[in-house]
């Protein structure tokens, strides 16, 4: 099943609509969607390494724009939308304490969340709720998301064929490691 899903994703990674799908996923992942855009971006780059930096640019731009939606949710609709999203991620009860800590380290929180498996949407919503200066939020988001997506793109562009061969030989292991990282990210959000 994993092999079929991998092959299906690779076959669609070069489709004319692939960049639009990536942009959509990157946009909504920054505010409400739990699946990271890396799941689309990596096979797209493996399938078309010459487009690696275009793909990273689309993911970065869409993610930062989606971060604005998360910021707006936090600022204007925290009680109706933001709080339920954070509650679903296990952070609903820690909002007040988090607000105080967040204001002390806001720049670094956005930077770390933008670079790591930590759900970026938590930070985008909290940035709006705590009224982080929009300029700081945008610049930090652009740096963090750009760094994350362009480093992945550069590595896949440079080492794409060996990485593709490794993934294809050890697809089960790669899938398991990815799931462990994804679950670990959610675990960190829930219990930290």
UniProtKB/TrEMBL annotation:
Segments forming domain VTT: 37-155
Transmembrane segments: 17-40, 52-78, 105-123, 135-159, 171-189
Gene Ontology CC terms: plasma membrane
Pfam families recorded: VTT_dom (PF09335)
Keywords: Membrane, Transmembrane, Transmembrane helix
InterPro entries linked: DedA_domain, VTT_dom
Name by which UniProt lists this protein: Cytochrome B
Organism: Thalassorhabdomicrobium marinisediminis
